[in-house]
Design goal:
6 strands; alpha/beta; 6 helices; Rossmann fold; Small_GTP-bd
Length: about 210
């Protein structure tokens, strides 16, 4: 098994990333996942089915075992959804550029993440799929970019049919998870270190007392 270590884990452990696909039904979540996993575009798929996929790859020369949950296309809150929202480490929120309603539903999925996790710092990548269907476009690329800036997350327009930018999406999410983990570790280390100014204030009275004695 490839070597890799989760922050704080033992050396040699393989790092697993739990990723969750979110988005309205019919936007192409399953097609994106299948293209990423097997380089195959599914002709038929039931959008009400949830499925999980695993793949081992290297990203930035580091091993990564991806556990991808492809969810059904409803934004309603359920006990099962609560469970995988808590377990997921990063989320890909998808819409179709040919379906403005699916674009509006992106906010519902983002709010659902916050409702469960109670933080805006969860790693997210925003995706506008079906970019090959330019003649049917209902959502401009600028609108997608603006929403991604609001979410402070990476944004891609993809085509699952032609496999455009599919790998980039999953790689970007893993990078977001790694970046936020490193930031969290650095923040903890910084918090645990005593501030030099405090030590100076504590030491200065003793230094003055010692000088007066000598």
């Amino acid at each position: 098994m490839d070597g890799g270590a989760r922050p704080g884990g033992a050396a040699g452990q393989s790092r697993e990333y739990k990723l969750v696909m979110l988005g309205a039904g019919g936007v192409g979540k399953s097609a994106m996942t299948m293209q990423f996993i097997s380089h195959r575009f599914p002709e038929d798929h039931d959008p009400t089915i949830e499925d999980a996929y695993k793949i081992r790859i290297r990203i930035d020369d580091e091993p990564a075992n991806l556990d991808i949950l492809d969810t059904a296309g409803q934004a309603e809150f359920t006990a099962m959804r609560d469970q995988y929202m808590r377990a997921g480490e990063g989320f890909i929120i998808c819409y179709s550029i040919t379906d403005r309603r699916s674009f509006h539903e992106v906010r519902e999925f983002k709010q659902l993440i916050y409702r469960v996790r109670r933080t805006d710092d969860t790693p997210v990548v925003l995706v506008g799929n079906k970019s090959d269907l330019t003649q049917l476009r209902q959502v401009s690329k600028e609108e997608g970019s603006a929403l991604a800036r609001e979410f402070s997350c990476p944004f891609f327009e993809t085509s699952a049919a032609f496999r455009y930018y599919i790998d980039d999406v999953f790689h970007a999410l893993v990078r977001e998870i790694r970046r936020k983990e490193k930031e969290a570790v650095m923040a903890m280390e910084k918090k645990s270190k005593p501030k030099s100014s405090v030590w100076k204030r504590l030491k200065s009275p003793f230094r003055r007392k010692k000088d007066s004695v000598t």
